[in-house]
Amino acid sequence: MARRALKLASWTSMALAASGVYLYSNKYLDLNDFGAVRVGRAVATTAVISYDYLTSLRSVPYGSEEYLQLRSKQNQGDAGLCQVEIKMSALLLVHLRSARRLCELCCANRGTFIKVGQHLGALDYLLPEEYTSTLKVLHSQAPQSSMQEVRQVIREDLGKEIHDLFMSFDDTPLGAASLAQVHKAVLHDGRTVAVKVQHPKVQAQSSKDILLMEVLVLAVKQLFPEFEFMWLVDEAKKNLPLELDFLNEGRNAEKVAQMLKHFDFLKVPQIYWELSTKRVLLMEFVDGGQVNDRDYMERNKIDVNEISRHLGKMYSEMIFVSGFVHCDPHPGNVLVRKCPGTGKVEIVLLDHGLYQVLTEEFRLDYCHLWQSLIWTDMKSVKKYSQRLGAGDLYPLFTCMLTARSWDSVNRGIGQTPVTATEDSEIRNNAANYLPQISHLLNLVPRQMLLIFKTNDLLRGIEAALGTRASATSFLNMSRCCIKALAAHKKKNTHSFFRRTQISFSEAFNLWQINLHELVLRVKGLRLASWVLALLCWLFPAPH
């Protein structure tokens, strides 16, 4: 098998090197970014990772029955299992080595590779921890364009020099991402703005990078038939052209601002269209701290629980009611602040390049599924999981969706909080069931992939704030589901009596949720009073 890997790698290398020369020759002079060096780097990394897995895990095939038994014994902490520990340590080391090699490849090839690496790094509960923890650094290691390149892009797209357009323009970017970087500037009329400028080589590289990834994923599938990662390439093919069009990003920003205007805590920076193009986006400058920065919130007296509740409401509305979902809520894209004018707490939503538009059928099935999960209707959980493409893997699907164990799903995800043991179990299972997870990700509708990513990013924020989903947050989700399903029923009936009936049913269901929430609060207050009384009894005040 190892010889087969080397043979396949050599064939792939020759083919890709030839195609690289054909694609890039005579057009670009920097061979480190384009041509045979760039392609060869990706081929070599893929071959080394594949060879490492094949040779290191020869005695325990990944995903085999023996592998799962060994992993289970290790997790249970059985004594005297030296051989188990040795074999599992070898596996974890292969994961870690491979993740580091992949990270180095992304940093070297930049652009699309960093974007895809960031996507993988966000899948905390779907991929082994060695991969997600290693690839997370890509959010802070994105490349920076030089000021010469920034001036060139602005000159080409806006037809003027920077000093003609701005009174001042900070050379040091506020932040750099895989596809662009943002600079603070002041217009001649005194307005402070944020200027998002695309890296100049990304447009030319993206389509060729995706083609290269597609070939490499197909090559790896020949060696490891159980690993199906074509979904990753398909997502990049679909989403990258949209993310590279900053006019599309501006339209998304205005659409979501209008859609969620009833949330007074949400701030979406205004777009200045007169100075925006496909590669340059000018918007209102809004300052704030990252949503996972607890120290910033403490200094500014911002309640982390309030922020967590607001995020939950905002995303429940996007997913269940509107079907228009911001799919990149990593901490750099979600800021918090106190509004300078009113002192009210605000969430600032940035980077609107990546949105998922949910079909009505998908959105309604997803509403039904979450309603079933919240109210522990396991028959409906199975039904709607299978309608969303999970098939017989629906238990794994619901665990991936909720980041809870199957036992917790059966007992009710709103009944018990997430424990450290359960969280660790979920992360370990991401490694145990990677072949099944990759197969499942190929089965579900493409819309679900970005929902998974969004869910994991939001859970990462909750974990950083120490506010993992509570019963109250699930009730807020349930409210949105009830409203969405009632609105759909009303839209499809012309009978006044039927519409009235639906409205009464909606009001009654919402009243039930409000009553349930009130009961939970009363229980919480009662428990707090009991704890206080116990403390007073144990530690009486001195007379």
UniProtKB/TrEMBL annotation:
Which PROSITE patterns would you find in this protein's record?
PROTEIN_KINASE_DOM (PS50011)
Q: Which organism is it from?
A: Delphinapterus leucas (Beluga whale)
Q: Matching InterPro entries, A to Z?
A: ABC1_dom, ADCK1_dom, Kinase-like_dom_sf, Mito_struct-func_regulator, Prot_kinase_dom
Recorded protein name is AarF domain-containing protein kinase 1
By its UniProt entry, which PANTHER family does this protein fall under? AARF DOMAIN-CONTAINING PROTEIN KINASE 1 (PTHR43173:SF19), ABC1 FAMILY PROTEIN (PTHR43173)
One annotated GO molecular function: ATP binding
Source species, domain of life: Eukaryota
Function text? Appears to be essential for maintaining mitochondrial cristae formation and mitochondrial function by acting via YME1L1 in a kinase-independent manner to regulate essential mitochondrial structural proteins OPA1 and IMMT. The action of this enzyme is not yet clear. It is not known if it has protein kinase activity and what type of substrate it would phosphorylate (Ser, Thr or Tyr).
* One GO biological process term: mitochondrion organization
Q: Which family does it belong to?
A: Belongs to the protein kinase superfamily. ADCK protein kinase family.
What Gene3D superfamilies does UniProt report for this protein, alphabetically?
Transferase(Phosphotransferase) domain 1
Q: Does the keyword Kinase apply?
A: yes
Pfam families (alphabetical)? ABC1 (PF03109)
A GO cellular component term found in this entry reads:
mitochondrial inner membrane
Residue span(s) of domain Protein kinase? 168-497
List keywords of the entry alphabetically: Kinase, Transferase
